[in-house]
Amino acid sequence: MSGLRVYSTSVTGSREIKSQQNEVTRILDGKRIQYQLVDISQDNALRDEMRTLAGNPKATPPQIVNGDQYCGDYELFVEAVEQNTLQEFLKLA
Length: 93
Fold this sequence. Notes:
Elements: E1 4-8, H1 15-30, E2 36-39, H2 44-54, E3 63-66, E4 69-73, H3 74-82, H4 86-89
Parallel strand pairs: 1-2
Antiparallel strand pairs: 1-3, 3-4
């Protein structure tokens, strides 16, 4: 797979995960950065793929990947936005 992907879930009881996913997609949309949303709740193989790419067997959404390169999780995403290094974080620069 190529391009920017945001691993998320449409089925979660966690307000925190839902809020984090919404913030990531809102910021990407606001900056007109194209990405594919991958819903891991539809297929366990997608959840496993996300965790393998993240290098963490307990990783939870949102996780951000560009091609086969892991970019980071929500905390690292927010840090990149605050430091104005989002393009580098997303491996677009």
